[in-house]
Amino acid sequence: MTTPVDHCPGLDPADAADRTSATADGPTDLSGERLPDAPLQFRVADRVATLPPYLFARINQLTYQRRRAGHDIIDMSMGNPSDAPSQAVIDKLAEAANDPRNHGYAPPLGIMSLRREVASRYLKKWGVRLDPESQVICTLGSKEGFGHLCLATIGPGDGVVVPAPSYPAHVYGVALAGGTAHLIDTTDPARYLSEIARIGETKRPKMVIVNFPHNPTATVVGPDFYRDVVRLALRYGFMVVSDLAYADVTYDGYSTPSILSVEGGDRVAVEFTTMSKGFNMAGWRVGFCAGNRDIVKALGTIKTYYDYGMYRPIQIAAIVALRHGEADVESQAKIYERRRDVLCEGLARVGWPVAVPKASMFVWARMPEPLVGRMSSMDFATKLLEEADVAVSPGAGFGTAGEGHVRMALIENESRLRQAVRQIGRSLAGDLRPSLTS
Ligand SMILES: Cc1ncc(COP(=O)(O)O)c(C=O)c1O
Fold it and tell me: b/e map of 129-164 (b: 16 or more CB within 10 Å)?
């Protein structure tokens, strides 16, 4: 009989036979004692076993089943950009991939010319001067960077203020590092600030996460918000992690401020930016961490233990995108803005008025009034999927603070969104009538 162990390089099959042997009754060890022949069950680490459940799984599964049954699902469930990066960026990737010198390991924290390009974008966009060597590193998307930053800075007993409703990675990153998340409602920035002050005083957190434009609620802030956060950080001694994933997706003239542009910002904060959203490069995994030298260094240190950095041709293409892609970023934001208008105006027309976002690629919609309290956001999302063939994310997937809402990602084109509105309108016609006649 051939077993995989027979083919292990450097292992003499006779040695293998010395250790175990298989009989008709199953494997035995040297002394002839029976060994279990069923697959062993291993217990995963507590840090994994205690992670909160992944609530989007049910909608994903249902979407999959309905697609298999032949339904054309209009999918607004995930913030996964569906448009392509500019052709020049793709061409640069192909050219760099054809250069045999580019296939080895790249510098783990990013090639210096890419880090310089990020620093130069900070200067152009926000007037922030950064030293690319000590204040900017590249990450494999900002999610990886955030997770490893938690591991590098947070441990058991450390408290972290996390925005609620929550982008799940903010909660999981803190939990996997052994920290304690203080979930604070972030939909009213002034209240978020006063809660940060209260927790700063009473619980002395080690870190505060801020994420504006916010996923999932699309809440935005102005520069004053960051001035106040920096003051609180200096007073209570916490570090600030600003997640600027949606910095490039803004509407109606709004532009996203950077915490690094306010006085004292780089004394307390790092900021994550990404090429996933505005540059349509989500699958490429290009993110950046910039700001406070010590925090950037801590992230860099832990990353060198975990990964070998980003494929060099991707980094080279990212430089081209950053250097020449600002107009593409703007026109992509305009595409999202038009989709937002189609969706929000359409929903209002069918009797479901929703808040109109100023940024992010999401519409965070309170469930239609007659249904709030009558069904959960999970049941409502299921209803839209089953009756309208429209997939949305249930608010509860972002934590209990998200209940009563659904999140719709603007990743389908305008005509598909019009179709989604018609189908949603038909599905809700019976439910909305009472509120329209009252
Ligand atoms: C708030 C927020 N931060 C970070 C990320 C991760 O982005 P990246 O693709 O850079 O890892 C996302 C992605 O959806 C997000 O919504």
Answer: ebebeebbbbbbbbbbbbbbbbbbbbeeebbbbbbb
User: C-alpha distances in angstroms, 88 versus 29, 85, 93, 153, 280?
Assistant: 62, 8, 9, 38, 13
CB 139 within 8 Å of CB 152: no
Query: What is residue 31's predicted lDDT score, i.e. its pLDDT?
Result: 84
* Residue range 49-83+327-429 in CATH 3.30.450.40: no
**Nearest Cα to Cα of residue 408 among 67, 286, 400, 416:** 416
State the closest ligand 1 atom to the C-alpha of 287, by its place in the atom list counted from 1: 10
Rounded Cα distance, 317 and 241, in Å:
27
What's the distance, CA 321 to chain centroid? 21
CB 174 within 8 A of CB 150: yes
Question: Can you give the C-alpha Rg of the chain in angstroms?
Answer: 25
How far are the Cα atoms of 115, 161, 357 from residue 209, in angstroms, in the given order?
Answer: 23, 6, 21
In the chain, where are the structural domains located? Answer: 49-83+327-429, 87-324
For the stretch 254-294, pLDDT in tens is 999 999 999 999 999 999 999 999 999 999 999 999 999 99
pTM: 0.91
Tell me which residue has its CA closest to atom 1 in ligand 1. Answer: 215
Of residues 392, 380, 397, the one with CA closest to residue 431: 380
CA 322 to CA 117: how far, in whole Å?
Answer: 7
CATH of 87-324, one of 3.50.50.60, 3.40.50.1950, 3.40.640.10, 3.10.129.10: 3.40.640.10
Pick the closest to residue 398 from 195, 145, 201, 211 (CA basis): 211
Residues with CB under 6 A from ligand 1: 79, 141-143, 167, 211, 215, 243, 245, 274, 276, 282, 287
